[in-house]
User: What shape does this take?
Amino acid sequence: MWVSDAFSAHVAYRLRTTFMRKRVPVLPRMLHKFCMRRAQVSIGPGVLMHPGVYLVHGQLVLDGLVEVGSGAVLSPWVTIGLRGGNVQGPTIGNAVNIGTGAKIIGPVTIGAEALIGANAVVTTDIPAGVTAVGIPAKVVGS
Amino acid sequence: MATTEERAKLKETQAQVQARIELQPGFFHAVSEDTHCASFHRGEFFDTRSASPWYVAYRALRLMWVSDGFFAQACYRARMSMKVKRIPVLPRLLHKISMITAQMSIDELVLMHPGVFIAHGQVVIGGVTEIKSGCFIAPWVSIGLQAGNVFGPTIGHGVFVGSGAKLLGQFEVGDDAIIAAQAMVIRDVPAGTTVAGIPAKPVGNK
Assistant: This one.
């Protein structure tokens, strides 16, 4: 928590979701603001992050009905979000590695242990264990 | 020491900047329009347009509490209306607040019409840029300049700017266009088209 801003923001986020589950008022919102100031981590209330996710430096936006599996690595400048008019967001499998600046948008599924390249824009399903890069993201290998 | 001509030129530039700032909308008008736009884009199914001003004020305060982007935008609106009245120091502090709360860095020369929705913040907007009402701006967007030109883009009504898009240089984006995520726009975008890629190319109509 001392050496990594993202980790302290992550801990604050976990505390926030615990408070939200217990329906504590006000405090979750304060913790969210702490996350924003500490490492620019903006995670919406509809996101389900399984235990054991690594946020590398922060600078993340996650919103909508999103699920992130355990062992996922989220690099900076990543957006995991929605397409207009649909609140269902992506489902990210276990141990997925998401590169810097990648954007994952819409109701897509990313298989376990996939690798999303830096600056990729993912708008379609990605199978498990492959590498996907580009705008829009294409599978380039496994 | 600056020469007389240089001082005259500086004064002229300052007058141009102030003339540009005078175009800014009033605070209450801008925030209420932003509230309508944000409620619409957030899918909050209230028709705030037909509601009483008190209800709109309540919605605005609620949005400031739940959305960092909206709070920072309201700070920006307050900042610009103070700039119009030539209040010193306070606008700069409000700018710092919007940077700290949602990393929203908007230049003074930017003319943002009332009724723009900035989803999460993390936006940089610079230069002589115009953003018309009904626009949606996703996180990690840069709207700004190309080297050597202080004029930025003019963005039409109801444009959707996707996450991580960059709009750099002097051009126009037509009404209801969609800029896809991570697109790099450097040329005109016709109304109603969707553009994507680096550099951005049309990929279809809405």
Notes: The mean pLDDT of chain A is 92. DSSP finds two helices and 15 strands in chain A.
